[in-house]
Amino acid sequence: MAPSRFSCFAQEPIKFPIDMNHQSDVLKGPEMIRVSKFYKDSKEGKFISSLDKDTRTLYDTFRKGAKESNNGPCLGWRESPNKPYQWLHYNETLLRAKNFGSGLVALGLSPCPNTFIGIYSQNCPEWILTEQGAYCYSMVIVPLYDTLGPDACAYIIKQADIHVVICEDDTKCNLLLDKSPRCLRKLITIKETRPATNQRAKNRGVEMLRFEDVEKLGAAKDNPEVPPKVTDLCTICYTSGTTGNPKGVMLSHENVVAGMCAVILQLGDHRPRSDDIMMSFLPLAHMLERCCENGMYLLGGAVGFFSGDIKRLSEDMKALRPTMMPAVPRLLNRIYDKVMTEISGSFIKKMLFNMAMSAKESELRRGIIRNNSFWDKLVFRKVQEGMGGRLRLMVVGSAPLAGNVLTFIRCALGALIVEGYGQTECCAPITLTVQGDHVPEHVGPPVACCCVKLVDVPEMEYYAVNGQGEVCVKGTNVFQGYYKEDEKTNETIDSDGWHHTGDVGMWLPNGTLKIIDRKKHIFKLSQGEYIVPEKIENIYIRSQYVQQVFVCGESLKSCIVAVVVPDVDVIKSWACENGIPGTLSVLCAHPEVKQLIMDDMVSWGKEAGLKSFEQVKDIYLHPDPFSVQNGLLTPTLKSKRPQLKAYFKPQIEDMYTKLT
C-alpha cells in the first residue's frame, strides 16, 4: 500500500499560486463576469474541459489512472469491522467492470447513451464496477438513494424508463418492489436476498439476478466495448428538491471531466497522486463524491469504502489511514462539538487548547500547514488519529461551514482544507478556496471550467452594481438540462446559456465569492434537509391564534424557529377566560400564552404532514404586526425576509442560544 507520510510540507509555508488579494479576473464588459486565474485562456472566455486531449470521458479517465498507478490498488473494502482493508487493483477493476457491462448487453440492454441503468446501493466496489461497466458500453447511470423515498424512486424508474436496477440488498429490493413500475424488469443484487423476496419479485414479473452471475455471463459473451463520446450523457442525477417530484439533472462526460479537471488544476502541487488513498463515505448518488472519486481514478489513486455504518467511520478511518477525503459540515461540526465538550469541564484542558489554537492559527496566517508540531502532539493528536493520522487534503462542500469550525479543523488536522461551492447542475464545483487562504466564510474564486456573474434580485434589494446578486454560472460543467422537463430547464438556463442557481452571493474585495442568501427562500439545515419557509408558514397561519408568522433558520443550524404575531382578539379572549390579565405586549411575554400558540401550531403542522425537521422548535411572540410602513412587508403584503431576519436578529439568536 502507499507509504506512510505526514501531511505537512516540511515547515515551509505554502507557495501562494496566485495573488491572494486578487483571486479572480474580471472580463471586459458591463456584466462584471469573473473567471479563474488558474487557466490562461479564461480571460478569452474559454473554459477547461480536460487536462489532455485523449482523456475526455470517464471511460478514458479510468484507463489513464490505471496506467498512472502502474496497476496499483484501486478499490478497497473490508468484510467486517475487525478485518483489514482488501484491494481490487486497477486492471482487475477494469476487467470486472467490462465483464459486468458485457453482461448487461447480454441481458438485452442496448449499448448506447439511451440506455439508463439504475443503481440503489451504499458506496461499495460494485457501485464503481457498475458505473465503469456502463461506460464501457455508453450507458447512463441513474443513482437512487434512501432520502428520495419509495414514491420518488418509483417516479424516477418510470420517468427514465429504467428496465434494470442494481440493488444492494434485500431491504432495498423490497422498497423498490413495493412500488415497482411496469418498466422495471430486472433487479441485480449485490448481497444475498431472501427466498420470500425472490418470490415476491417473480409475482411482480421482475427477474432477480446476482451481480457475480452477470459478470460471469459477460465474460463468457465478451461483447465488444462501445466507448462513449464526450458529448454523451454519463449520468442523470435526480435532485430531491423541495416541492413536487425530483428533477433529473442530465450531465455529460464532458461536464463531469471538466468539473474534476478544474479542481485538479487549481490544487496544483497538492492534487491527488497515485500513492494517495481516499476515504469514501459521502453518498456516491451525489455529485460531490462522484467527482472526488473520479478525480482519484484519473490520477491513479486508491479509494477505500467505509463499512456502511457512519457511527463506525472513525474505526474505518483508522484501518484505512486515508490521505484525503471529501467532507461535509455535519461531520466537521460533530468533531468540533466533541472536542468542545471534552475541554469544557477542565480549566487546564481549555487553557492548553486555546494556546494550541493560538499557535496553530499564527502558523496558518503564515501559510504553514503541518501536523507534527509540539501542539499537534500534545493537544490535537487524538483528533488526527481519529481520522487515521495521515490526512493531507480535505475538500469540504454541500452546505456552508461556520468560520470558527473551519479554522478549528485546519488547526487540529494540520491538513490542507479547501471549501467549495457548487450544485448538482454544475456537476459539483463552481468556486473553490485557494490553498493557503486561511480566511474562512467565503467559497473562493470561480474554478477554471466556468465563469460567474451576479444578477439583480430587486425584490430582495440585491444589485449587481453593489457586488451582490443571484449567482449565475456558464461553462463546460453546466448541465444539459432537466430530463423530460424543458419548461423547468428554460426557467433555470437562460437563452445565453447562463445557469441561474437561485443562490445570492456577493463578491469580496479580493475577488472571492460569499454566499449570503437564497433567492427562492429555500435553505438547507446543517444535516442537509431542505426547508421551504413559505410552505410551513402557510400551514401555521391556519391556527386561530396566529395573525402573522415568519419561519427562519439557516444552514449552520439543525432546526427552525419562528416569530409569531398573535391574533389580538383571540388571544385576549383566551387570556380573559383563563384569568390572565394584561395588554398584548404583556401576554406575548407570558409562558402559558406561548405554550398554547406553540402547541396549536405544531398540531396544525402534524395534521398537514410536516416532517419533524419542518416543525419549529421555538417561537418568539411579537405584539406589533409586520407592515409596509415598518418596512417588513412589500407593497403586495409579502414578507420581506432579509429585513425580517435583520429586524428580529437578537430574538432569533436568543432562541437558538436557548435551544443549544
Notes on the protein architecture:
The protein has 660 residues and is of the alpha/beta class. The protein has three domains: 24-46 and 311-470 and 503-518, no CATH class; 58-228 and 277-310, ANL, N-terminal domain (Rossmann fold); 523-659, GMP Synthetase, Chain A, domain 3. 36% of the residues lie in helices and 20% in strands. The chain has 21 helices and 27 strands. Strands 6-5-7-8-9 form a five-stranded parallel β-sheet, with helices on both faces. Strand 5 (116-120), helix 3 (125-135) and strand 6 (140-144) form a beta-alpha-beta unit. Helix 2 (90-106) packs across helix 3 (125-135) and helix 2 packs across helix 7 (211-221). The longest helix has 19 residues, at 347-365. Residues 1-10 have low confidence and may be disordered. Its EC number is 6.2.1.3. It comes from Cryptotermes secundus.
Mean residue pLDDT: 93
Radius of gyration: 26 Å
Helix content: 25-40%
Number of domains: 3
- The side-by-side strand order for the widest beta sheet comes to 6-5-7-8-9
CATH C-level name of the largest domain: Alpha Beta
- DSSP strand content: 15-25%
CATH architecture of the largest domain: 3-Layer(aba) Sandwich
Number of strands: 27
**SSE class:** alpha/beta
Outline the low-pLDDT stretches.
1-10
Function: Catalyzes the conversion of long-chain fatty acids to their active form acyl-CoAs for both synthesis of cellular lipids, and degradation via beta-oxidation.
GO molecular function, one term: ATP binding
Keywords: ATP-binding, Fatty acid metabolism, Ligase, Lipid metabolism, Nucleotide-binding
Domain AMP-dependent synthetase/ligase: 73-483
